[in-house]
Target: Malate dehydrogenase
Amino acid sequence: MSKKPVRVAVTGAAGQIGYALLFRIASGEMLGKDQPVILQLLEIPDEKAQKALKGVMMELEDCAFPLLAGMEAHGSPETGFKDTDYALLVGARPRGPGMERADLLAANAQIFTAQGKALDKAASRDVKVLVVGNPANTNAYIAMKSAPSLKRENFTAMLRLDHNRALSQIAAKTGKPVASIKSLCVWGNHSPTMYADYRFATIDGKSVKDMINDQVWNKDVFLPTVGKRGAAIIEARGLSSAASAANAAIDHMRDWALGTKGEWVTMGVPSNGEYGIPKDVMFGFPVTTEGGQYKIVEGLPIDAFSQECINKTLAELQGEQDGVKHLL
Ligand code: NAD
Ligand code: LMR
Model:
């Protein structure tokens, strides 16, 4: 094995997404079948959580993954992010009974401020950060703002689950395979205000919009189905999505690290002003990736309906940002 191992930190490692994620990272599905990894696993210092984490590590050990070059358990981000090359920030405070959105934002602001600072201090200067824990866009924004010595473009939020959900809905509607659908994207916040957009999508070179040709379906079926899919899964499973979220995290990091060969994917990334989105807003955009860098797809026409949808999700994100401003 010739490649040098890279360090992959995962927070919330003993949680449900962690359980669906770690084994796939260790088997090479995220960074390639020739890339050894050292897992830096973070949980809250609580005895029960650390004990559960030990159990997960015993199972990882029992898989005898050839690419798993090391494993560490941590209870604090300062030690957990040392020299980290890839950080998947999954652990977050879930919404409890009677908790308002503002309380959730404040609780998570504390977690992501501390983690941003720790990454700033300890991680590799090229660390690629993916925030999964909700509210994902705003948590990523907080971490980015708390890490001034790292490049802002190295902080991203997960919109890939929404992207994948949209792909499956379009595949079902058109009766075409998921893999044949190109150039789909999801704009904005990972929340029901997101705008899943198939205006530019094609299947075998043909326009998906023309194939579907039904704006009522777009507005009344497609957008609410994709936007409220997280809630529908919680309702059905009694727990939030985990395997599909872990899968989307793998897709996001793999494509960022290894490239999309010109294909579009959706990533939540800090805006540089593209499409009128103010600088630094952590927004879902269509991107392509190459050589470990992503590039926002620019110059797409935005019609009146799309602009209205984009304005709505932007307003929500700016409201979230305003709600945590005093904590940064
Ligand atoms: P979970 O409750 O099963 O696990 C979360 C784990 O994180 C717990 O083990 C907890 O102890 C740990 N944790 C909490 N705070 C931590 C901290 N400061 N440092 C380290 N670990 C910490 O939850 P889950 O189902 O794995 O979901 C995790 C998060 O992902 C939730 O916020 C959920 O809403 C979010 N989520 C996001 C998406 C997305 O598409 N962006 C999709 C699904 C779930
Ligand atoms: C999801 O999209 O499945 C998660 O973000 C869970 C949620 O709260 O919607």
Notes: The pocket of (2S)-2-hydroxybutanedioic acid (ligand 2) is lined by residues 134, 161, 230-231, 233, 240-241 (CB under 6 Å). The chain is about 45% helix and 20% strand. The longest helix spans residues 101-122.
